[in-house]
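During the reporting period the student researcher (J.K.) took over the structure-prediction task from the postdoctoral fellow and processed the backlog of single-chain submissions. One of the processed entries is reproduced below for the supervisory committee.
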Amino acid sequence: MAHLRKGVGEREGTVAHGDADAANLMKVGGFATAALRAAVDENDVVDLSCDLQGQLRVVNDATTPLFVDSELPAAGVLGDTIGNPTTPTVGAFASFWNGSTWDRVRGSSATGLIIDGNVAHDDADAGDSVLIGGHANASLPTAVDENDRVRASFDLQGQLRVIATGSTGGTSAVDDSVFTGGSTNLTPMGALFDATPPTITDGNIGAPLMTSGRILRTEAEQATAANLNAQVVGNVAHDDADAGNPLSTGFNAARTRFDPPQIDTDGDRVRAIATPQGIQWVLGGHPNITTREYMTTAERTNDPIIDTIPAGSYIVILEIEVLTSVATTANPQVRIGFGTTTVPTEPTSGNTIDGLVISHPGLAAGSGVVRGTGGTAVSVGGSNQELRITNDAPTGGQITVLISYYVSSL
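J.K. obtained the following structure tokens:
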């Protein structure tokens, strides 16, 4: 029962909190039930409803939402490029522990999440980090099983090792490495065809030039031409119609009676000379010609005129003259030829013989026979062969032989 204090308006229940409900009392604390009570009619008087722990049951009115202070910021739509948020310790922004403090995860809209390895470049490999740079080793690592996962292989300078799978694209090669025909890959090179190529800035790279026929163009600079050994091949074959510009042979123009300067040392390089019309001046013969005279007043058989020719050397005859004196009363036969011991024997009628330089069946007094002009070779002997003469006696006179020759090595 409740006691009503007159004049004050206070009401006080007779059942304490936590005691069993009794009598028809005014329930200030509400009516405790394990579940919701049965619904009453609209506009009826109802008791306040509490659970068995005395917590008042409430319902959220759609027009007046019920708010609970959770210490969290108001909900919002998720999006990119959010600034540094102020959040409680249950914030959803990712952070990593660096051993002493928490650091926010870094990234950007362009590159995504930024991941750094835990071992610096040039440090010894350690841990189970993600190998961005690959694994450095002095030689190729041991092969793994097919379809296994492998690490990228680098040399000790950080250069990625690659292997060419075909010959269409070519590949780089180590300097002075072995080349194997038919298997070593080559990197193709292109060139530019341009009649008036543009200049490039000093220190820049550029494409080499080629002709319209895909022939690579080259040019020797004057400053270094003396150090170059170039092989030049013409573009018109022998016996084909002439075409294109001729190659200059480097002649210097020299008029008649021009006295060219002398060289200082035998074997030096000299410039060729030509007439103002481009006709080359030439001098026939040999730079070391020997002129020899031989004379006899008697019959001779295989007598040497030029002897002591070693093996591996041979005589080159440029001119030879055989003369008889006017006082000779006979017409002597003369045969001069090459041989180690004898003059080649006179052939029989209708036959031939090799190695003879000059002969006459019977020279008249005061006559002679000449072969050659001294400018070109008329006969060449064999290795170790000497020039010999066989003749009849020039009765009452003499036979004279004049020879221009030189000795050369085989």
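The committee noted the following: Residues 1-8 have pLDDT under 50 and may be disordered.
J.K. will present the remaining backlog at the next meeting.
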